[in-house]
Design a protein that fits this description.
This is IFT121-like zinc finger domain-containing protein. The structure is a single chain. With 76 residues, this protein is α+β, with helices and mostly antiparallel strands. Strands 1-2 form a two-stranded antiparallel ribbon. A hairpin with a 6-residue loop joins β3 and β4. The radius of gyration is 25 Å and the shape is rod-shaped. The longest helix is centred in the first third of the chain and has 36 residues. The chain has two domains: 38 residues; 35 residues, no CATH class. It binds zinc ion. The site of zinc ion has 8 residues, from loops.
Length: 76
């Protein structure tokens, strides 16, 4: 059997708790960032006429292509 001191056992216990909390915080942050990226993708528009890809965060249903000025309807 391995003999360890109480202080060492306590230190390991506290450290493992901290690692658990840190990893939980890290993964929740990563998930939040992925969600934000997906939200930003909703602003991406691809023009079917000139295949130009641009960002239009104001338009919700219909957007105007900045290159060929054609109107694009959202597919979703
Ligand atoms: Zn276009």
């Amino acid at each position: 059997m391995i003999k360890i001191e109480l202080s060492v056992a306590l230190a390991i216990y506290l450290l493992s708790g901290m690692v658990f909390i840190f990893s939980f915080w890290y993964f929740s942050e990563v998930r939040k960032r992925a969600k934000d990226l997906r939200k930003e993708e909703g602003f991406l528009w691809e023009c079917p006429t000139c295949t130009h890809i641009y960002v239009d965060s104001k338009a919700e249903e219909i957007s105007r292509c900045p290159l060929c000025k054609s109107l694009i309807k959202k597919v979703k």
